[in-house]
């Protein structure tokens, strides 16, 4: 048994086994995808600190140096980042020497919005392509992994950060404790860490098992995150739930020495967690049962569509889609291809399958799209209104399979 990624204890229980799967972002231009390395994808809960986590670690150098995710692809995410930046500039009275640090800031989409408010910025991202695009967009980027040593070098060159932004990164961290050490060190005395992360209670509510993949090492409740932050002299002061990515938590974090008290929103959410009994194994065991049922139901719907002679394509090839496709044993005999607008994935195959990824704009639409990017459902359905009006349908897999 491995040690808890949070508290270091060994009191863990596996509550969901999604099988042996390839790294979900391992899109390669070969039809021999089945030969990719595969790793256990098992979801555990620590019964001491109640941190959700997966058991196996694919090295960060494999997952986060050469990959095809770019944050500027969707309008929804760009609009979301604009809202977060507006919150920040409304709350913070920036001084001339202040700057915003984005940990894992990808192609600089978030910091481009910050720059529009005449605030200095710095991106740190390990992705080679993402760092290059960030620089091309006018957002300076350190192309490396953020950790304590990285933070110490930045402090020497830039001083401490007034705001640290971390969107979808706090649950990616192989070096979790070094990163938190670094955040504590580089965060200004009156600064804030604005963290965006998968919210475990919402993931369970939505039966969104596809948010479990090898890049996502840990899964937080506000209670488990609070315990972890306390180790590093940090505390939660505000939070809210946002619909982005199917249900994320936006948390404001500062030094434990701050006099700022918890917001009513944070207090209410933490009370809600107690009511949901997020520190009782039964909620996780029930989640596992619902995931198994969803798998069976989705396969039945796909088989019914195919029995009617209709064609199915996956719409989008997000990493979460790899979890669905591999766990449900779906291949090109039932889903003929996936279509994408992200040119970095076009010409490849969904990892672990023979399902090719094609360019959406040049591929004849099917009868039914399996919407793997279900978290952007509203944006996608609006874009493809013509497809729906001509009789096309969507199969939404989460929170339960439904055809619209």
The CATH class of the largest domain is identified as Alpha Beta
Q: Give the amount of beta strand, in percent.
A: 15-25%
Which range best describes the helical content: under 10%, 10-25%, 25-40%, 40-55%, 55-70% or over 70%?
25-40%
The CATH superfamily of the largest domain is Vaccinia Virus protein VP39
Mean pLDDT: 95
- What would you report as the Rg, rounded to the nearest angstrom? 21 Å
Low-confidence stretches: none
Number of strands: 17
Counted up, domains total 2
Note the gap between the termini.
Answer: 44 Å
Morphology call: globular
Largest sheet: 7 strands, mixed
Question: What is the element string, with H for helices and E for strands?
Answer: EEEHHEHEHEHEHEHEHEEHHEHEEEHHEE
Strand order of the largest sheet: 6-5-4-7-8-11-10
SSE topology:
Elements: E1 12-22, E2 38-46, E3 52-54, H1 60-63, H2 75-91, E4 99-103, H3 109-115, E5 120-124, H4 128-136, E6 141-142, H5 148-158, E7 161-167, H6 176-186, E8 187-198, H7 200-205, E9 218-219, H8 222-231, E10 234-242, E11 248-255, H9 264-276, H10 281-307, E12 312-315, H11 319-327, E13 338-340, E14 357-359, E15 368-371, H12 377-383, H13 385-389, E16 393-396, E17 402-403
